Amino acid sequence: MSREEEMKKLEEGIKECRRCELWKTRTKPVAGEGSLSAKLMLVGEAPGYYEDLKGIPFVGKAGKVLDELLGSVGLGRSDVYIANVLKCRPPGNRNPVTEELKACTPYLDAQIEIIEPAVIATLGNFSLGYIFDKFGLKKDKISKLHGKVFKVSTIAGITKIIPLYHPAVATYNPGMKGVLTDDFKVLARCF
Ligand code: URA
């Protein structure tokens, strides 16, 4: 199967998914968006209010910040692939719970296998936690790890993992925009 066919099949599975309780409250699941041959994959936490309505990742306030950060290093959405750890919105944007993570993360694993990105940037704590565990990296506070480059061996070769703050932090703490902008410069030099 081609990448496109594999992703289409996966997305169809996500549309029908009832592996956890979140299907009951979702409007639309949010599989992911972007280029299937992207070198860079960005992994957020979970859809929020607007993402749930539209079925597209990062279309709310945090998405606007993400678009600006990508633009600051000459990238657009069509150059990258954007996914989330959870594909359905937790009610009220609460944190994901263990059963939801267990049920949903095989979809993210499959997306990583299909795209085989050279670089995975984690956006926020949940994404950092999942990706660091998956690749056997030692977790620490995001304040210590952000903007650092970690290399792991995968069947696709060497993959670089870069933890970043979640773009939403810049919406409630404008001072963090500079930190994110600097980290995106590091990211852009990695591929
Ligand atoms: N926050 C996320 O982590 N993901 C989205 O898609 C939107 C907001």
By CATH reckoning, the class would read: Alpha Beta
Strand content: 15-25%
How would you state the average pLDDT, rounded?
Answer: 97
Low-confidence runs of at least 5 consecutive residues = none
Strand order of the largest sheet: 1-3-2-4-6-5
**Largest beta-sheet characterization:** 6 strands, mixed
Spatial shape: globular
Count of individual beta strands: 6
Secondary-structure-derived class: alpha/beta
Tell me the name of the CATH homologous superfamily. Answer: Uracil-DNA glycosylase-like domain
Rg: 15 Å
In DSSP terms (H or I, runs of 4 or more residues), the helix count works out at 8
Q: From the 3D coordinates, which CATH architecture would you assign?
A: 3-Layer(aba) Sandwich
Small molecules bound in the structure, each named once? uracil
Order of helices and strands: HEEHHEHEHHEEHH
CATH fold type: Uracil-DNA Glycosylase, subunit E
Number of structural domains: 1
Distance between the termini: 26 Å
3D architecture notes:
The chain has 8 helices and 6 strands; from the N terminus they run αββααβαβααββαα. With 191 residues, it is of the alpha/beta class. It has a 6-stranded mixed β-sheet, with helices on both faces. The chain has helices at residues 3-16, 49-54, 61-72, 98-115, 125-134, 142-145, 169-172, 176-188; strands spanning 32-34, 40-44, 80-84, 119-123, 150-154, 157-164. The structure holds uracil. The site of uracil has 11 residues, from loops.
Offer a concise description of the structure.
The chain is of the alpha/beta class and 191 residues long. The chain is built from eight helices and six strands.
